[in-house]
Design goal:
Layout (H helix, E strand, L loop, with lengths): L13 E10 L11 H16 L2 H4 L2 E6 L4 H8 L5 H6 L1 E6 L4 E5 L5 E8 L3 H16 L6 E2 L3 E2 L11 E8 L1 H6 L1 H12 L1 E5 L11 E6 L7 H47 L5 H17 L2 E2 L3 H10 L9 H15 L4 E2 L2
Antiparallel strand pairs: 1-5, 1-8, 2-3, 3-4, 4-5, 6-7, 8-10, 9-10, 11-12
Helix pairs in contact: 1-5, 8-9, 9-10
C-alpha cells in the first residue's frame, strides 16, 4: 500500500488531491528535445534536489520507456500522464508515488505532489518547496509580464494545475453530474474522468481541476478549487440523503450486495470491482457499513487496475478478488 504523507478532509468523498507545476529550463527548446538535452536537464534537476538530502533521500530517477508495461502501471498509479507514457522520458519519484517529477513531457518539468482527501494547500506547500529547491540551481524560463513560460499557453503564469478526485456516484446516477460539467466550466474548472481528459468516470470518480493559470495567484487558485470541491461534495451528500429518504431499502440492498461481492467473490473483473467499491464507499460514508477505511478501499481499487496485476485476464480477476477479500475481511453491515 502507498502511504501518502499528506492527508486532508472529506476522505471517501474526496479521494485524493494533486498539485502539478509546469516549468521549463532556460536555454533549451520547448519541443523536440534531443536525448542528450533531456539527460542534461534531468541531471541538472537531480543535482539540485541532491543539494537537499532530506528531500533527495526519498527519491529515485528512472527511465520510462514509451508504451512499456511500466508506463501503463505508472498511469494507473496516477504518477505519469498518458501523454508521457506515449513518448517516454525520465521520472523522479518517491516510492509511495506522492511525489513525481516527469522530465520531458509537454514541458521540461512537470512536478506533482499527491495527498489523500481534500488537501490542496498542503500539497501546494510541498510542491513549492521542491520547485524552489530546483529553481535555486536551475534557471527557469520566466517573464515579468506573463510569469512562468510553458509549452501550452493554457499553462502560462503560475504553471499550476490543482485537481481533486471526487467520488460522486449518486450525482452520476441521477444525471446531475453532466450538469456539473457546465457549472464547473462557468466557475473556471474542468471535470474529467479519473485518469484525465477523455476517460470515463467509472464508479462515479471525477477529477475537478482549474482551467486558469494566468492572472491569478497560486493561493487564489487553490482557494477557488477548495470552494468548488466543497460545494460539489455538499451536493453529493444531499443527493445521498435524498436517495435514502426516497427508498432506503433499495439503497441498503445495493450496498449490502456489493459488500457481499467484495467479501466473498473468487473472480472479480475490474469494472465490477469499481462498481462494488463505489457502493461500499457510499455505505461507509452513510453509516451502513463499518470495518474498513475509505482510504484503504480506494487505494486497493487503484492498485488492482489491470496493468498493475500480472497474468491473463482470468488470473488478474482472481488476484483482484483475493486482494479485495483481504481488505474487506472486517467489513460489517450495520442495521
Amino acid at each position: 500500500m502507498r502511504n501518502y504523507a499528506i492527508h486532508g478532509g472529506f476522505t471517501g468523498l474526496a479521494a485524493s488531491t494533486r498539485v502539478r507545476l509546469a516549468r521549463n529550463v532556460k536555454g533549451y527548446p520547448y519541443r523536440n528535445l534531443t536525448p542528450g538535452q533531456l539527460t542534461e536537464i534531468a541531471n541538472k534537476v537531480w543535482d539540485a534536489l541532491s543539494a537537499a538530502p532530506a528531500v533527495a533521500n526519498g527519491l529515485h530517477m528512472t527511465d520510462v520507456r514509451a508504451g512499456s508495461q511500466e508506463a501503463m502501471q505508472l498511469i494507473e498509479k496516477h504518477m505519469i500522464s498518458p501523454e508521457f507514457a506515449k513518448k517516454g522520458g525520465k521520472l523522479i519519484a518517491s516510492d509511495s508515488g506522492d511525489i513525481a517529477i516527469m522530465l520531458g513531457e509537454e514541458d521540461h518539468i512537470r512536478l506533482q505532489v499527491m495527498g489523500t482527501g481534500l488537501c490542496p494547500k498542503e500539497c501546494m506547500e510541498t510542491a513549492k518547496r521542491i520547485a524552489d529547491l530546483i529553481e535555486n540551481r536551475v534557471p527557469f524560463d520566466y517573464s515579468d509580464q506573463l510569469g512562468y513560460l510553458t509549452a501550452c499557453p493554457s499553462n502560462l503564469g503560475t504553471g499550476l494545475r490543482v485537481s481533486v478526485m471526487l467520488h460522486l456516484p449518486v450525482l452520476t446516477q441521477s444525471g446531475a453530474a453532466e450538469r456539473l460539467v457546465g457549472w464547473a466550466a462557468r466557475q473556471g474548472f474542468t471535470v474529467r474522468g479519473a485518469y484525465g481528459e477523455g476517460t470515463r468516470a467509472a464508479g462515479g470518480f471525477y477529477q475537478i481541476s482549474n482551467q486558469i493559470t494566468l492572472g491569478l495567484s497560486e493561493d487564489a487558485i487553490v482557494d477557488k478549487l477548495i470552494t468548488a470541491a466543497t460545494e460539489v461534495i455538499d451536493q453529493e451528500k444531499k443527493a445521498r440523503e435524498q436517495l435514502r429518504s426516497q427508498n432506503e431499502d433499495a439503497l441498503f440492498d445495493r450496498i449490502a450486495r456489493s459488500a457481499g461481492v467484495l467479501r466473498h467473490a473468487r473472480l472479480l473483473p475490474s469494472q465490477e470491482a469499481v462498481t462494488c467499491i463505489s457502493d461500499v464507499l457510499i455505505g461507509l460514508q452513510m453509516g451502513y457499513l463499518t470495518g474498513v477505511s475509505p482510504e484503504e478501499l480506494i487505494e486497493t481499487e487503484q492498485m488492482t487496475q489491470p496493468a498493475l496485476i500480472a497474468g491473463a485476464p482470468h488470473e488478474r480477476d482472481r488476484v483482484r478478488a483475493q486482494k479485495l477479500r483481504e481488505v474487506t475481511e472486517n467489513l460489517r453491515i450495520q442495521g
